[in-house]
Design brief:
Blueprint lengths: L18 E2 L3 E6 L2 E5 L5 E5 H8 L8 H8 L3 E2 L4 H14 L9 E4 L4 E2 L11 E2 L9 H13 L4 E6 L8 H17 L3 E7 L7 H9 L2 E6 L4 H7 L8 H15 L4 E6 L8 H10 L4 E5 L5 H5 L1 H4 L3 H20 L5 E2 H11 L19 E4 L4 E3 L2 H8 L6 E4 L4 H5 L2 H8 L22 H8 L10 H19 L2 H9 L16
Parallel strand pairs: 6-9, 6-15, 7-8, 9-10, 10-11, 11-12, 12-13, 13-14
Antiparallel strand pairs: 1-5, 2-3, 3-4, 15-16, 16-17
Helix pairs in contact: 4-5, 6-8, 12-18
Length: 498
């Protein structure tokens, strides 16, 4: 019979020097060190305590020792139990990989009725022909989506402006619903629309099929209409009226919005937040200009230095936190996504922040012409006459697309933990590889991380958030944790273009 008696306390006391577990580190300030590990654990140590930790001088049983041990930064014996715990945490963090791509983007039309200078999709004129997806192409694309192993997928309509091809959107939604039911697959719908063409028919359709609406609101009328012009008139009044209509019919969470920062936005961070609040929106996704499509051509007119965007972002974020302290519930979508990676055991569906990269592994795009791409950014490059990241066409089968030479190339450069400049970065457990962006900006899938604008932006925003987390009052911690409420609907996947 097994001995079930408790042993004396000395039996459980550890002796001798401890071992360091794998970790990354970086300075938050002259006297504060951030350390992280691949399980997603983190802590901030005074520089002197960090020196004691790595020199194995921490007293056994001290508060600091026990905290670092509980977070898997040190151990006395790396045994099977330790390995299983670490593997379980790692597997949970990478759970987004299970089942393959879950976000499937469809471009029913490339036509658009607006002329946004920062458009990344290289839109076509609203009256142009030859830019709509045919039913035959749509059907093959739907069948490809449903052939993916994931039991639950999201079908997202982008453009162009999808409402210019609403008949196509309606047919695809109804067809996909019937086919998904026959295959016992769960299906969610998102439409990314500028809302300028919205009708009662559209709203009723969205309500019946539980279609989530994602739109763009760049701020007050002066900023929005300058950034997002329509022929002969401004679009702001129409957009905010239609946001209200969607809220009334679909519920307050039925519509979300993001804004794209142009040079005209930079002095007005607080006015932009106030604009969102005035229309009953509970969050904003603050997005910088991306180097694709028409945005690349107009960057001299509407662009800015990265430092200018970071000042804008910080001002907006601190203002949002101040609003929360005054009892106004509001969140910033990008910070919320990063905090989910930092503060929870789970990964996210945000393509830019996935490692292995979400490009092809987390998302696939079906263009109006039947070409299939690893992401929306891959499609944008093709519109700029660079089809490097085209996986194939809707006539191919699923396994051929996902095992193509293009996907192998993306995969080889798509694991941040194995990339030079990323592998030893303190932020790597929460960041992504984004090889297509580095190919676009630096001519190389891996890129040179120290001069990468993506890495510079990520490092700066991570620094802001870890500063907040380290010195946060109980009130601020509660605010940030409140943003992680799963009831909130942050729809942009960093691929939205309307």
């Amino acid at each position: 019979m097994a001995d079930t008696r408790f042993h004396e306390a000395p039996t459980y006391q550890e002796a001798g020097p401890y071992r360091l577990m794998p970790f990354q580190f970086g300075r938050l300030s002259e006297d504060r060190m951030l350390i992280t590990n691949h399980m997603g654990e983190f802590t901030v140590l005074p520089a002197s305590l960090f020196t004691d930790f790595i020199s194995k001088r921490l007293p056994l049983g001290s508060t600091e020792y026990l905290d670092l041990k509980s977070r898997h930064f040190l151990t006395h014996e790396f045994n099977d139990t330790t390995a299983r715990v670490a593997a379980s945490q790692w597997r949970t963090k990478k759970g987004f990989m299970e089942g393959g791509p879950k976000l499937h983007i469809f471009v029913p039309t490339l036509r658009c009725n607006q002329g946004c200078g920062y458009c990344q999709a290289s839109r076509a004129d609203s009256r142009a022909s030859g830019f709509d997806m045919s039913e035959a192409t749509a059907l093959r694309a739907i069948d490809l989506m449903l052939a993916s192993p994931a039991p639950a997928v999201t079908m997202e309509f982008q453009g162009g402006e999808p409402l210019l091809a609403f008949d196509v959107v309606r047919w695809m939604t109804e067809t996909a619903t019937a086919r998904a039911k026959a295959r016992n697959k769960s299906l969610q719908f998102v439409i990314c629309t500028n809302l300028t063409l919205l009708t009662d028919e559209h709203i009723e359709f969205f309500r019946l099929h539980s279609v989530a609406v994602s739109t763009s609101l760049d701020g007050p009328a002066g900023i929005h209409d300058r950034n997002r012009p329509m022929s002969g008139t401004g679009s702001h009044a129409t957009v905010v009226r239609n946001i209200r209509r969607c809220q009334e019919a679909l519920g307050s969470g039925g519509v979300s919005a993001l804004m794209t920062t142009s040079v005209h936005s930079l002095p007005h961070a607080r006015a932009i937040i106030d604009e969102y609040l005035s229309h009953g929106l509970k969050s904003v996704f603050l997005r910088e200009l991306n180097p694709y499509g028409f945005a690349a051509k107009s960057s001299k007119a509407i662009g800015y230095d990265l430092d200018d965007f970071l000042l804008f972002y910080r001002d907006a974020l601190l203002y949002i936190l101040d609003l929360n302290r005054r009892g106004v519930p509001f969140a910033e979508g990008y910070a919320t996504t990063l905090l989910q990676k930092i503060l929870t055991p789970f990964g996210v569906g945000f393509v830019d922040l996935q490692s292995p990269t979400g490009e092809g592994f987390g998302t696939v795009l079906y263009n109006h012409d039947g070409n299939v791409y690893a992401s929306d950014e891959a499609r944008m490059l093709a519109e700029m006459d660079d089809p490097t990241f085209r996986l194939g066409t809707v006539k191919d089968n699923w396994m051929d697309l996902l095992s193509s030479d293009t996907m192998k190339c993306i995969a080889a450069a798509g694991v941040a933990e194995a990339l030079p400049g990323c592998s030893d970065c303190a932020y790597v457990p929460y960041c992504g590889a984004d090889p297509i962006r580095h190919y676009r900006t630096q001519g190389d899938l891996i890129g040179h991380r120290p001069s990468s604008s993506f890495c510079q932006k990520q490092s700066a925003i991570f620094g802001i958030l870890f500063d907040l987390l380290d010195g946060a009052s109980a009130e601020t911690q509660n605010i940030l944790l409140g943003w992680l409420n799963p009831g909130r609907r942050f729809l942009p996947e960093a691929t939205w273009q309307s």
